[in-house]
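Q: Got one fold?
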Amino acid sequence: MSGLEQTNESIDAVAREWVLKLASGHATAADAAGVRAWLAEDPKHRSAFKRAKAIWHDARAVEHKFQTKPRSRRFMAPLAAAAAIASILLVPIVGHLWTIGRADYRSPLNQVSEVALPDGSTVWLDAGAAIDISFTGQRRDVALLHGRAFFAVAPDSSKPFRVEACDGSATAVGTAYSVALEESQVTVAVEEGHVRIAKGATEVTLAAGMQGHWSNKGQLSAQTGDAESMDSWRHGRLIVNDRPLAELIDELDRYHRGVIILRDRAEVHVSGQFDIRRTDQALQALALSQGLQVSYWTPWLTVLSR
């Protein structure tokens, strides 16, 4: 790699550059000779190279995430060089694209959107969320296709407002509540009023401060919940209380440019408030409190490791 040894980067940074070069599919015989010579110079070089290869292996394990991130030329070029996944980026997730394609309203990746519906209701769509609406003279139906949404429903007793997801529904007349669809698991959180959730022949009425859950195969359940932390994303922050670090990183990844990889997914729990509009600052704060190191492999690949 021409001129690489003359840079002032750390050994780890040099090792990353070598791994990215070799993984890109464009390495030459001279590159191979160069990395062998660099590895022979110092045992520290070999250790750093081994760590970098392990991180790259982790990146390959979550390659599916890259398919739902922005695909501009500025995005694709670093990934092609950084991850040898130009081919991955060109293989769409057919189901996801079909879902987004049929949506009446969708929110851009990494951004929360506020939408005024035709009946006077307002919906906040979380990053990447999508809904399809069907409003008639008798009913107001919303299909949650992806992600999560918060609904401030305009009162109209003659037209119940129903949100459908995973073979279940959440119905209200005039209230405020959120519905989240995550990997075939649905969560409803009620902020104001009452919401009736239903799946098959089973129905449960939720009051303010309660949450309901169901899945494709599971039954309805209800419990007291924390609406503030559940829907804090609407206000640009995540509020977590004794939550697994890995889950929090997955949440931040929703709003981060590119992809975040947490190498050590040990059962560590964290609490705090994090600004989803400044995910880099949130990652640095987490790294400081948890003894982690943040490495920016490219503008689109961020790695947290010990």
Observations:
- The chain has nine helices and 18 strands.
- Residues 1-9, 62-68, 70-96 have pLDDT under 50 and may be disordered.
- The two ends are 28 Å apart (CA to CA).
- The longest helix spans residues 43-61.
